[in-house]
Amino acid sequence: MVHIRQLAFRFPQHATYDSDALIPSPANADALTWVASPQTWPNLRLALYGPEGAGKTHLLHAFAERHRAVLFPGETLRRLPDMPPNTPLAIDDADTVPEPQALLHLLNAAAEARLPVLLAGRTPPAHWPATLPDLASRLRATAAVALGQPDDALLRTLLARLLAERQLRVEPAVQDYLLAQLPRHGGALREAACRLDRVSLASGRAITRATAAEVLKTMGAEEEPDGPADTSPDPPTLL
User: Fold this and answer.
1) CA 170 to CA 160: how far, in whole Å?
2) For residue 238, what pLDDT is reported?
3) Nearest CA to 103 among 139, 70, 67?
4) Which range of residues forms the domain containing residue 180?
5) DSSP readout, 59-102?
6) Residues 103 and 82 in one domain
């Protein structure tokens, strides 16, 4: 008898940033309210900040989709990028821009044209590296709103969605186990779903708790999770 083993091919998994896929929660409620009304932003600038996986990039994509804004990844901003006329801006990872002059140029151009700019970073903009005094001044004058750690309901919904996107049938008890062990951010859930998908394709078997435990081991997940995180975002501030 010849046994045929299914080969697992690694197809790229792209994060879904459609506005319809955005999951409202107490952790992002303040940010959703502010992002929806750019005309109310002081100086027409707003910065979102928070930990990895809090949803900053998703909110930027939703803003760009709704307002037809141009979205720049911060790490790609070098020299003086061209700014399309009459177009709002969104700058992801704005705290990683390699050339501060490029960020200053975009902020100045948007201010002159009276166009809104949405930025995102890990920390408040007043803490971003800014060797240029003019840039530091503009960042301090930028309103900032924090995104809190995702709450249990958001994480549960996100994990179920990531598994469904890969057509993986995982029992609720196994999903509960994964949620209890994984770090509390979207990036960890996405990585776990991707690894479970590869294991399922390679083995041809259903995802069990034992399978989930093996995947968690490869990710270095802790056996005992921390207690629930505080999901209350800080109030909007002008920094």
Assistant:
1) 9
2) 47
3) 139
4) 152-219
5) HHHHHHHHHT-EEEEGGG--S-----TT--EEEETGGG-S-HHH
6) yes
Q: What is the distance between the alpha carbons of residues 117 and 22, in angstroms, rounded to a whole number?
A: 20
pLDDT at 198: 93
Q: Which amino acid is at 6?
A: Q
Task: Compute the distance between CA of residue 152 and CA of residue 131 in angstroms, rounded to an integer.
Answer: 40
pLDDT digits (tens, 9 = 90+) for 183-234: 888 788 889 999 999 999 988 888 999 999 999 999 985 444 443 443 333 4
Report yes or no on 1 lying in a domain. no
* Residue 13 counted as domain residue: no
In a domain? residue 66: yes
The Cα–Cα gap between 167 and 15 comes to 15
| Coil, helix or strand at residue 150 | coil
CB neighbour list of residue 3: distance below 8 Å, 6 or more residues apart: none
Are 116 and 45 contained in the same domain?
Answer: yes
206-236 burial: b if 16+ Cβ within 10 Å, else e: ebeeebbeebbeeeebeeeeeeeeebebeeb
* Nearest Cα residue to 226 out of 177, 182, 188: 182
Which neighbouring-strand residues pair with 170? Answer: 207
Does the pTM surpass 0.70? The reply is no
Number of H helices, E strands in the chain: 8, 6
Residue with tokens 């459609």: 18
